[in-house]
Specification:
This protein is mainly α. It has one domain. It contains 14 helices and two strands; from the N terminus they run H-H-E-E-H-H-H-H-H-H-H-H-H-H-H-H. It has a two-stranded antiparallel sheet. Strand 1 and strand 2 form a beta hairpin. Helix 4 packs across helix 10 and helix 4 runs antiparallel to helix 12. The longest helix is centred in the middle third of the chain and has 39 residues. Its main location: membrane. Keywords: Amino-acid transport, Auxin signaling pathway, Membrane, Symport, Transmembrane, Transmembrane helix, Transport. It holds the Pfam family Aa_trans. It is a multi-pass membrane protein.
Length: 359
């Protein structure tokens, strides 16, 4: 009973003064549970309490956890809004955005814009939820920097691992395979461009397997960086190049003008089932363009946090800036690409091929 009274006395001092109502109750419960775990770890022989280093002049407190201290994602928590924007842009803009005009060729102007807007709003809402869940009690609570940790906290140790490990493994493996194929193909194409398209290029080229091996070795070398913050420069390069090619992709069709015979009629299958499949395929292209939230928790895990300046405020500022830029990339690609090529873009897979094949 004495321990419970101590928790009741000490808990309010750790909570933000602005918390009210259900939020205050949730924070009290979380802080009380944290205090109970600390007392249990103190009573256990050889156990050590969680330690915070408050020597930083900005007021942030950094976790000193034996397990988190050496893991690449959480080893460094000195990120900021700028680095989070670089990471979010680099992971949020991909070649999938070139399929947006293809989706519009099936959905048409009205439903295409509606579906793209709804997908963008849903993307913002879900990322806001993840940002809030990353740290339940700012400064003093556990930080869930990985989907596995969040799943265990939500569903328990057994069910959480069952629901999280398999999806994370096959999504990570699938992403790696896709990136290796795309990266190796891009390197081979770049080599041919540099070579000038001469007949000797085929003899000098490494072939598909050779380029796969080269790209894999480069990825392994990059993975030797100590933590996620240390590759912020690479994320900056990726963000700049992604914004650049997105801008070129929607600016070129406008500058070249529309070719003859462009139609904006919706291209759906003749039968009802074929039409439904085409609509679902178009919606899937729009969803695929946003690429999900595969790195949101990890990116927020690189940011410092305290009760006065929680990581969610820094992260949400970075999310706002990055998604304004993402919207300025995706919407012009979809609208300008469909305006320039209409239904012709569907027969040529993407707006990039439409630009290449249009005289």
């Amino acid at each position: 009973m004495g321990e419970i009274r101590d928790i009741e006395k000490s808990t309010p001092r750790n909570l933000p003064s602005t918390a009210t109502g259900p939020e205050l109750s949730l924070q009290v419960i979380s802080a009380a549970a944290s205090s109970m775990r600390e007392m249990e770890s103190t009573d256990a022989p050889g156990a050590s309490m969680e330690v915070y280093d408050s020597s930083d002049s900005s007021g942030f407190r950094f976790e000193v956890n034996p397990q988190e201290a050496w893991l690449p994602l959480t080893e460094s928590r000195n990120g900021n809004t700028v680095t989070s924007v670089f990471h979010l842009l680099s992971s949020g803009i991909g070649i999938q955005s070139l399929l947006l005009p293809v989706a519009f060729s099936t959905l048409g102007w009205a439903w295409g814009i509606i579906c793209l807007s709804l997908a963008f709003i849903w993307q913002l809402y879900t990322i806001w939820v993840l940002v809030q869940l990353h740290e339940s009690v700012p400064g003093i609570g556990t930080r869930y920097s990985r989907y596995l940790q969040l799943a265990i906290a939500a569903f328990g140790p057994k069910l959480g691992k069952l629901l999280a490990i398999f999806p994370v493994m096959y999504l990570s493996g699938g992403s790696c395979v896709m990136l290796i194929i795309r990266g190796a193909g891009t390197m081979e194409l770049f080599f041919k461009v540099i070579c000038g398209g001469e007949a000797t290029c085929e003899d000098k080229s490494l072939g598909g397997a050779g380029w796969f091996l080269v790209f894999t070795c480069m990825a392994i070398a990059l993975a030797q960086r100590p933590n996620l913050n240390s590759i912020a420069g690479f994320s900056f390069i990726g963000a700049v190049t992604a914004i650049a090619y997105c801008t070129l992709i929607w600016a070129l069709p406008i500058s070249k003008g529309r070719p003859a015979g462009v139609s904006y009629d919706s291209l759906q299958g003749k039968s009802d089932m074929s039409g439904i499949c085409d609509i679902l395929n178009a919606v899937g292209m729009i969803v695929l363009a946003f690429r999900g939230h595969n790195l949101v928790l990890e990116i927020q895990g690189t940011l410092p946090s305290s009760s006065k300046r929680p990581s969610k405020k820094i992260m949400w500022r970075g999310v706002t800036l990055s998604y304004i830029i993402i919207a300025l990339c995706f919407f012009p690609i979809a609208i300008a690409g469909f305006w320039a090529y209409g239904n012709k873009v569907k027969a040529q897979i993407s707006v990039l091929q439409s630009i290449h094949r249009t005289p």
